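Morning run. Coffee first, then this:
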Amino acid sequence: MKIAVVGCGALGSYYGARLCRAGHEVHFLLRSDYDVVRQKGVTVRSAGGDFHVQPICARDPQEIGPAELVLIALKTTANFALPRLLPPLTGPETAVLTLQNGLGNEEAIASLVGVEKTLGGLCFVCLNRLAPGEILHVAHGAIVMGEYGRPSQPRTKLIAGAIAASGVPCTVTENLAAAHWEKLVWNIAFNGLGVAGAAGFEAVQRGRIDPGQSLGSCLTTDLLLDNARWEKLVRELMMETIHAAQALGLAVSDSAADRQIARTRDMGAYKASTLIDFERGQELELESLFLEPLRQARQAGVECPRLAALCDVLKEISIKK
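And here it is:
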């Protein structure tokens, strides 16, 4: 399969490298990492076994041309670039699979390439980019994927099978919206509180930062779960997210909170992606991960006071940075 990877940070590089190792023709669309990856390839360091691959590197989508599968792993803050990046990569038979966080990404892609070409995927994985072309795989890795706005097609299972054959557990869902909200149960709590924790527990509770207050360090997953007050807040945010999903008519179980917390304890001192963005001074994915879920919750009649306070603090932190 000819595969184009758009967004070659930790996520895109890891899954692209897995597919490359499995024998697919994988093209990485790169910017700042182009020279290093073209010369040295991609090395994945993983408890499951280190490996190295040499993907085909390009600076411009025109160099790649139409692919059979386009993997979108950009930060959602870079979605403004999709109208320029996607058209050269798509042909009549192309499938575009977004692995991005949060809500609204499939809609943006479908508006450019059509619903019939658009799929969404949720990644349950712990990754960090150590350096250009160097990826640390900490734990997990499974993908849940599905068609946007329609039932699975024959190609859905073919793509999932190709991903699974590369060593990545991959399943197909018939309800992509419910899968998105189940992933938000983790993302809102750990990405959100991990960054907002830099303002302190009281600030997150009241939904504002005191004037002149300086920010401390972000909180890794172990710090959030080892402190009784933070763990209680994690659970409250998770339950608000679950109840919002249920109000939207989605089958997300109350037990999702316990499952997500149990899985997270295995990660140790893991930095969620939003923490890394914050520490690097990059724009936070506020819209897709926090603000749009809050809007949809309220439209469904669920107020989510913990999420609302978290959003207010994250917006203040974003301005401060």
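Residues 69 and 265 are 34 Å apart (CA to CA). Good start to the day.
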